[in-house]
């Protein structure tokens, strides 16, 4: 899960050429009263007409704005003499729903619609670092359900692995914390877990590292994981106590702060799995990889995400202008700001018939979209064989 409405971690806007919309000189403008107001009027009239300069200026990069066009791009990359690792895949919770893991925002079934029992001020609070500091219980209770256990990777996860095995995958940037990419056997070098994961944990006060097992054991015993280091002290509790001594009375949130260590004993820092909460910075690897990878990308595939959480969502703007982009999702997402585009900035995906020149939306479940793509590429049997083989292996491991 992710973090990330964290502006501080937000990558800079790409410095692309400005393509302001008007352009022509002012000579003829006075001839006609309606056109006399210059570039602003022109800009506005383009908006009204639904035209965009980008659409006019960029040549269409695809001969076909369906999976067929994307297949052509993959084949081109595959037949290239140069390094073929040119495809980036961006993923979100939608690639794991077929495994039985809910996404976050789908109405009714999404996690955020099903957290009533935790009495949160708002559903996202459960992943907010400030809220966690004050009241770690809801997250710890939820963590029991979230711990990656026996879920099996979906066909979409194996499709990504197939791209890797064919030497085409440059990187999979995922927002997911379910660990299914690794479980599917994707080489971790090809993976960026942008919103972290459960495999390690840290004390949020002294920074001491803990194992996944440490936290898991605590939460399954219904205990709040606390640091065990002698010198560690929960800074929030320490501050509250200091205030009390000064005569400040109760700490801030009266309803929270269970004081589970009690008895005048010192409360040590909370230990949290290294999933990135709202209000925390993204892993360094995220920044390093976007810097290295995005420029090299010749095809961006986006799957199963609402593209609502930044800075992850803005990765679609970090590829080159001549990089085709495919969205496989149940709904159209990530469409950018028309005004920004008019001003020549990259801004989200553009599926407009007139204005779009490189983006394809394939409305489907991720697994179906990946299967169709594999079929058109002649990889379907190989993909399905991989899924069956790997699922059988996981079943075996479970019965041992
Ligand atoms: P969301 O729940 O926001 O979006 C999932 C998207 O996938 C939606 O557009 C769904 O319609 C679509 N979808 C669901 N199942 C699908 C399927 N089988 N096939 C195709 N599309 C499907 O999830 P994310 O975008 O991953 O962060 O959420 C991003 C971040 O927001 C998470 O990392 C998490 C959350 O807050 C934190 O927890 C801090």
Automatic annotation (TrEMBL):
CDD domains attached to this UniProt entry: SIRT1
Keywords in alphabetical order: Metal-binding, NAD, Transferase, Zinc
Amino-acid positions noted as binding NAD(+) in the UniProt annotation, renumbered to this chain: 93-97, 103-105, 175-178, 305-306, 329-331, 366
Pfam families: SIR2
PROSITE patterns: SIRTUIN
Compositionally biased tracts (Acidic residues): 250-264
GO MF annotation terms: histone deacetylase activity, NAD-dependent; NAD+ binding; zinc ion binding
Ranges of residues in domain Deacetylase sirtuin-type: 60-380
Active site per UniProt: 195 (proton acceptor)
Cofactor needs: Zn(2+)
Binding-site list for Zn(2+): 203, 206, 227, 232
Catalytic activity: N(6)-acetyl-L-lysyl-[protein] + NAD(+) + H2O = 2''-O-acetyl-ADP-D-ribose + nicotinamide + L-lysyl-[protein]; N(6)-hexadecanoyl-L-lysyl-[protein] + NAD(+) + H2O = 2''-O-hexadecanoyl-ADP-D-ribose + nicotinamide + L-lysyl-[protein]; N(6)-tetradecanoyl-L-lysyl-[protein] + NAD(+) + H2O = 2''-O-tetradecanoyl-ADP-D-ribose + nicotinamide + L-lysyl-[protein]
UniProt xrefs under Gene3D superfamilies: SIR2/SIRT2 'Small Domain (3.30.1600.10), TPP-binding domain (3.40.50.1220)
Region named Disordered: 1-38, 233-266
Biased composition (Basic and acidic residues): 233-249
Entry EC no(s): 2.3.1.286
GO cellular component: nucleus
Cofactor note: Binds 1 zinc ion per subunit.
Family of the protein in this entry: Belongs to the sirtuin family. Class I subfamily.
Protein's recorded name: NAD-dependent protein deacetylase
Taxonomy of the source species: Eukaryota, Metazoa, Porifera, Demospongiae, Heteroscleromorpha
């Amino acid at each position: 899960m992710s973090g990330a409405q964290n502006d501080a971690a937000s990558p800079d806007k790409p410095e692309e050429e400005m393509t302001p919309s008007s352009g022509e000189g002012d000579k003829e403008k006075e001839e006609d009263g309606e056109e006399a107001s210059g570039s602003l009027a022109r800009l506005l009239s383009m908006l009204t007409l639904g035209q965009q300069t980008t659409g006019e200026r960029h040549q269409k990069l695809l001969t076909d704005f369906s999976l067929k066009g994307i297949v052509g791009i993959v084949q081109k990359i595959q037949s290239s003499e140069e390094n073929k690792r040119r495809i980036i895949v961006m993923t979100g919770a939608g690639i794991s729903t077929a495994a039985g893991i809910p996404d976050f925002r789908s109405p009714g079934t999404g996690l955020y619609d099903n957290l009533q029992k935790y009495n949160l001020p708002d559903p996202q609070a459960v992943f907010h670092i400030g809220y966690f500091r004050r009241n770690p219980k809801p997250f710890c209770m939820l963590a029991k359900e979230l711990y990656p256990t026996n879920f099996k990777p979906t066909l979409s996860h194996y499709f990504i692995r197939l791209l890797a095995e064919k030497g085409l995958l440059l990187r999979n940037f995922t927002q997911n914390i379910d660990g299914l990419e690794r479980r599917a056997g994707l080489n971790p070098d090809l993976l960026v877990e942008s919103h972290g994961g459960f495999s390690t944990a840290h004390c949020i006060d002294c920074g001491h590292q803990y194992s996944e097992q440490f936290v898991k054991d605590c939460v399954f015993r219904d205990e709040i994981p606390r640091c065990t280091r002698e010198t560690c002290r929960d800074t929030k509790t320490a501050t509250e106590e200091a205030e009390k001594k000064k005569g400040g009375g109760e700490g801030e949130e009266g309803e929270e702060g269970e004081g589970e260590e009690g008895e005048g004993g010192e409360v040590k820092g909370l230990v949290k799995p290294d999933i990135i909460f709202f209000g925390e910075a993204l892993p360094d690897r995220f920044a390093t990889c976007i810097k290295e990878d995005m420029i090299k990308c010749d095809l961006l595939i986006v799957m199963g995400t609402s593209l609502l959480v930044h800075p992850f969502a803005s990765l679609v703007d970090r590829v080159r202008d001549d990089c085709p982009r495919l969205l496989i999702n149940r709904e159209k997402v990530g469409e950018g700001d028309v005004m920004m585009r008019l001003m020549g900035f990259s801004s989200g995906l553009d599926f407009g018939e007139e204005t779009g020149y490189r983006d394809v939306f394939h409305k489907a479940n991720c697994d179906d979209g990946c299967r169709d793509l594999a079929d058109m590429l002649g990889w379907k049997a190989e993909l399905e064989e991989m899924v069956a083989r790997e699922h059988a292996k996981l079943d075996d491991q479970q019965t041992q």
